[in-house]
Amino acid sequence: MTNEHFLWEISKKPVPYPFALSRMQDIAQKIRAANAQERVWLLEHPPLYTSGTSARPEDLFNPHNYPTYDAGRGGQWTYHGPGQRIAYLMLDLQKPHGTIPPRDLRAYVHGLEAWVIRTLATFGLKGECRENRVGVWVVDPRTGLEEKVAAIGVRVSRWVSWHGISINLRPNMVDFEGIVPCGIKEYGVTSFEKLGLNVTQPQLDAALVANWQPVFGSQPTPFTELEAE
Predict the structure, then answer these.
(1) Quick check: 219 and 211 in contact, CB under 8 A?
(2) Structural domains of the chain, with CATH
(3) How far is CA 112 from the centre of its chain?
(4) Considering only CA atoms, which of 112, 88, 82 is closest in space to residue 12?
């Protein structure tokens, strides 16, 4: 995969979820037809909840009556909102991408986990994966509590990926109480801010870019800034 056929995009203002869903689906279809470039899209959403294919109605409480959407991805309930960095990846998984062999969905998910873990390490955080618990987890050294700092949810249509990852930088943590995050009641959710780290969004974005190539192989290009919809 060459740089000329890969885009890095960024939205500076919160993106409405229906627009993001429609745009991802459209681009995924065009990538499959060889009419669009593969890409990573960095963004935020306004406060909302999304349900995956395994979401249970009883795991949604939503005391603030935020909008809810059927995401169509794998997984259960997820919160998105300001202060959370989302990376949507639209890749042709019929091709190899760095350490990811073609047509290997498990390897792709492991690649996403590795990308997040490498990014967290930039800031001194030890991210870990747990069997039967999707996402990336950290142990707060001050409390000993193991909590999720990043969620992963993917959808693949005819071997083109969409959706991706979300990393909690400084979201309103109270809003996670409106759901059972990812259907896991026994463990909580954390963020960079909750862990005592003062990291800006540009710093996190730079770390995501810097840690992309060792996992996915291609050299990131400058961001294309998208207009708000």
Answers:
(1) no
(2) 3-226 (3.30.930.10)
(3) 9
(4) 82
**For the chain, how far is it from start to end, CA to CA, in angstroms?**
30
Quote the radius of gyration of the chain (alpha carbons, Å). Answer: 17
Q: What's the pLDDT tens digit per position in 60-96?
A: 999 999 999 999 887 889 999 999 999 999 999 999 9
Binding-site residues for substrate:
73-80, 151-153, 164-166
CA dihedral sign of residues 115, 116, 120, 121:
negative
| pTM summary value | 0.95
- Residues 31 and 19: their CA atoms lie apart, in Å, by 18
Structure tokens at 124: 């001194």
Contact 205, 42 (CB under 8 A): yes
Catalytic residue among 182, 195, 204, 209: 182
Query: Is 182 an active-site residue?
Result: yes
